[in-house]
Design brief:
Radius of gyration: 21 Å
Shape: globular
Strand content: under 5%
Structural class: mainly alpha
Number of helices: 7
Helix content: over 70%
């Protein structure tokens, strides 16, 4: 009995627990991301200023706490998966460099790139600017003057949040689908290094252009132009789905030819 109890501390058990926790906190993170974009933002746009400030103070601030810490927990548990996971032979996950050259490894690496970008957006852009928005809402409710920087801070936060929504679709496809793709059946030797290099060059270009667009480095942050994909949650969903098709077509063509 004691041996069975101690088995929970084995590498295999810790890998399982890490994966379970990763799914739980990941659902929390992405669920709140969709709540902010699909529910809260459209609702706030229809509220009077006073009601919106009160909602920002009492509701959004609490939701943002769960949002940012579930993002951090998702990254932390993902790192634990990499540390504890073993393959069927019992070998440690990270010691096999060949894994990252396989179609499944490339898919996971793509998901990691997008997830880490989303995490940086949460803590470096969304939360940093939402602190300004929340402080302004509380100050106005207390009878103070509105912060002239609150609008621009809210705009930067919204652009990053919408970009995270767009990234979330291909991220989930590559993370969740990696173990189920038909490409998984390919042997390591069937993936040509040159094809993998082409895939990553194109992937980095797509990733960099979209992130630069969300940060306002391509034409600023005002509505219109390339920011049209962020103006409504419907536009973000469509863009995310189109991006999934493009990325999967690239993945299929490059890694199976």
């Amino acid at each position: 009995m004691l041996g069975g109890l101690l088995d929970i501390f084995s590498r295999a058990s810790l890998a399982y627990l890490s994966r379970w926790a990763h799914v739980v906190v990941g659902i929390t993170w992405i669920g709140l991301l969709y709540y902010f974009n699909f529910v809260q933002t459209p609702a706030f746009a229809q509220m009077e200023a006073g009601a919106r400030n009160n909602a920002v103070d009492k509701l959004a601030s609490r939701a943002l706490w769960w949002f940012r810490w579930s993002a951090a927990a998702t990254v932390a548990t993902g790192i634990l998966i990499l540390i504890f996971y073993t393959d069927l032979k019992g070998d440690a996950f990270l010691v096999s460099g060949d894994f990252w050259k396989s179609p499944e490894g490339v898919a996971i690496a793509t998901g990691i790139l997008l997830a880490l970008t989303m995490f940086v957006n949460v803590w470096g852009i969304i939360w940093r600017n939402q602190k300004v928005v929340i402080a302004n809402a509380r100050n106005v409710q207390a009878g103070g003057e509105a912060d002239p920087n609150a609008a621009s801070a809210g705009r930067l936060s919204a652009l990053a949040s919408r970009q995270n929504t767009i990234f979330s679709f291909p991220m989930l496809i590559f993370m969740v689908g990696a173990a189920h793709f038909p490409y998984r059946a390919l042997k390591l030797g069937h993936t040509h290094p040159g094809n993998v290099a082409i895939y990553w060059i194109i992937t980095i270009i797509i990733w960099a252009l979209l992130e630069a667009n969300a940060l306002g480095w391509l034409g600023g942050t005002s509505p219109g132009g390339t920011r049209t994909i962020y103006e409504t949650h419907q536009n973000a969903i469509i863009t995310g789905l189109v991006l999934c098709v493009i990325w999967l077509a690239l993945f299929s063509w490059v890694l199976t030819t």
